[in-house]
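Researcher: Let's do a round of design. I'm pasting the structure tokens now; please hold your answer until I've finished.
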């Protein structure tokens, strides 16, 4: 059984794709709305939430746990992986496969959008520092709240999205990482704003 957790609805984008990939598998999803949003919490708090979430999913029968949250993956991914033997599960995060994809590409200028927590962690600059890639990071703190409230197809959200993406467009980036699974729900709008020249990388 796959156990998936996120701070809210964003991780459902990961669940939907996994459900298509593994149609016969069982899933359990935990949206930790009691501690939403993760992007504003300390790394210590996020590690604590991630461990509690993992133990809960394990108690429900999960064999594989997927951290469907970039902030939790940034601050607690390696920590949870170090606890795999004790937890008795295999832990996966959404950042590691994204880094592998970027490493095997010819990207020269990379844009990263995410929560304040994910951007502050510096996970992409630190992990890609030896590849000669220019990385431009942009925190987008309002987007998660708007998505959780269901404000996806509104003029207000699209206007805020354009505001956040404009500096990245001006830098003429080659690719953009949606470093928050909530942002997958705005992927169509992001692609339209960035234009066909920019590769949009959706870690989900």
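Researcher: That's everything. Go ahead.
Model: Designed sequence:
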């Amino acid at each position: 059984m796959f156990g998936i957790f996120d701070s809210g609805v964003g991780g459902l984008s990961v669940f939907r794709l996994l459900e298509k990939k593994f149609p016969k598998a069982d899933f359990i999803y935990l949206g930790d709305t009691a501690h939403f949003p993760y992007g504003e919490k300390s790394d210590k708090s996020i590690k604590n939430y991630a461990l509690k979430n993992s133990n809960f999913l394990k108690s429900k029968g999960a064999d594989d746990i997927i951290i469907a949250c970039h902030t939790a993956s940034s601050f607690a991914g390696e920590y949870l992986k170090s606890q795999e033997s004790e937890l008795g599960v295999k832990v996966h995060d959404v950042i590691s496969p994204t880094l592998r994809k970027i490493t095997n590409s010819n990207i020269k200028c990379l844009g990263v959008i995410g929560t304040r927590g994910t951007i502050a962690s510096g996970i992409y600059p630190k992990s890609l520092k030896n590849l000669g890639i220019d990385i431009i990071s942009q925190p987008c703190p309002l987007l998660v709240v708007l998505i959780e409230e269901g404000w996806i197809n509104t003029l207000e959200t699209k206007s805020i999205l354009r505001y956040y993406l404009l500096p990245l467009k001006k830098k003429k980036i080659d690719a953009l990482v949606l470093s928050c699974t909530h942002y997958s729900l705005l992927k169509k709008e992001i692609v339209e704003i960035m234009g066909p020249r920019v590769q949009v990388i959706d870690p989900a």
